Amino acid sequence: MIKSATPYTINENPEFSSWKAFLEKSPHSTVFHTPEMFQVFQNSLDYQPRIYAAEKNGSILAMFLPVLVTLKPGLLRSLTTRAIHYGGSLYQETEQGREAYSYLLDYYINDINNHALFSDIRNLTDPASVLPLLRKKGFVKEPHINYWIGLDKPPDKIWQQFHKSARRNVRLAEKRGVTFETIKERSMLPLFYQNLKRTFAVKHIPLPDLSLFENIFNILVPKNMAMFFLAKAEGKPFASFLVLVYHKIIYLWYSADDFKMRNYYPTDGFIWHILKWGHQNGYRLFDFGWAGRIDQPYGVRQFKEKFGGDLIEFGRYIYVHKPALLKISKIGYDILQVWGKITKKITGMY
Q1: Residue 27: per-residue pLDDT
Q2: Which residue of 89, 102, 254, 302 has the lowest C-beta tally within 10 Å?
Q3: Residue 52 and residue 89 in contact, taking contact as beta carbons nearer than 8 Å
């Protein structure tokens, strides 16, 4: 669908060739902006990707790629659907590109208001040049951080960046016989998924449907844009890892292990495994992913900082479309989390 937004046109169905050409020219493009990732979400349960491209004279100047994510379909859809912009916004680094991005934001906010509680722009690159514009449009920053590890140095130099505890844990993983196997057959995905189910249940975090991972395997793996791993010890798989790869960057997206086998340190071992692999194969950066807010205690951040990467603070930008419904939704989510913890104590699960 193409709609006018003078002096730009908003195209909701751009040609893949134009889309790919725009990504190749953009320093902000990530794996989450690709047509292939769009197809993954499009074919996965509870995900509804959309695309908004601001064009002029047939050329894309700015692009928005929200994914409507629903935690509870059916009657609770309106209370559990948000628009996530994985990777952040894309725009041509020119005055015209930023102007087109401004038109695009106005169109997007008006269009998505009836479909999501809030929009969440998750920046993986620096959005500094459009921060005033985001604030002007009503987006509020949340100071989430990330860690990057450069892969343009030899493995021994990367190893020296690790904190003492990380080096110790990697050695223990090696000593205890932990190995990492790349999943090459779709029939192995249920094993991969089982580890995620166990971990997400313990943490009371909603887990995406298996179809998301099946589509990643079917669409991204053949194009060398994703890799699935299983960690094994004592003859059984007990930890799962998913990385996405694009433009010489490795993105850690999902990881999970068996809490009963934490003393095998599979995640420490995997980080060292993938960093060495990345360097050997010419990758330039390992993106560790979200590490919470710097002003709040968070175990995941404490784990990630052990590997000596660079702390990155691009933040997230939130626009609330339905304030009243969002408040109700938060209350309901808190109740479900408390109930989950009570159930766990009563049943003795995990």
Answers
A1: 87
A2: 302
A3: no
**Is the confidence at residue 243, as pLDDT, over 60?**
yes
Residue ranges matching CATH 3.40.630.30 in the chain: 2-143+316-347, 147-311
CB 103 within 8 A of CB 71: no
Place of tokens 């269009």: 111
Q: How far apart, in Å, are the Cα atoms of 105 and each of 14, 62, 100, 136, 308?
A: 17, 10, 9, 11, 37
% of the chain exceeding 90 in pLDDT: 71
C-alpha to C-alpha distance for 158 and 149, rounded to whole angstroms: 8
Read off the pLDDT band of 78 (50, 70, 90): low
pLDDT band at residue 335 under the 50/70/90 scheme? very low
In this prediction, residue 2 carries a pLDDT of 52
Which residues 6+ apart lie within 8 Å of 152 measured at CB? Answer: 279, 284
Nearest-CA neighbor of 32 among 145, 132, 121?
121
Topology given in CATH for the domain delimited by 2-143+316-347: Aminopeptidase (3.40.630)
- Residue 350 confidence (pLDDT): 24
Rounded CA separation 106/6 (Å): 12
Strand partners, 147: 311
Place of tokens 């089982």: 194
Q: In the structure encoding, which two tokens stand for residue 205, read together?
A: 């975090």
User: How many C-beta atoms lie closer than 10 Å to residue 63's C-beta?
Assistant: 26
Taking the C-alpha atoms of residue 229 and residue 316, their distance in angstroms, rounded to an integer, is 29
Residue 341: pLDDT band (50, 70, 90) is very low
Q: Which CATH superfamily is domain 147-311 in?
A: Gcn5-related N-acetyltransferase (GNAT) (3.40.630.30)
**251 bridge partner residues:** 244, 287
**Which contiguous run of DSSP H or E holds residue 177?**
none
The residues, ordered by sequence, that sit 6+ positions from 41 with a Cβ below 8 Å of its Cβ are 47, 48, 49, 67, 212, 215
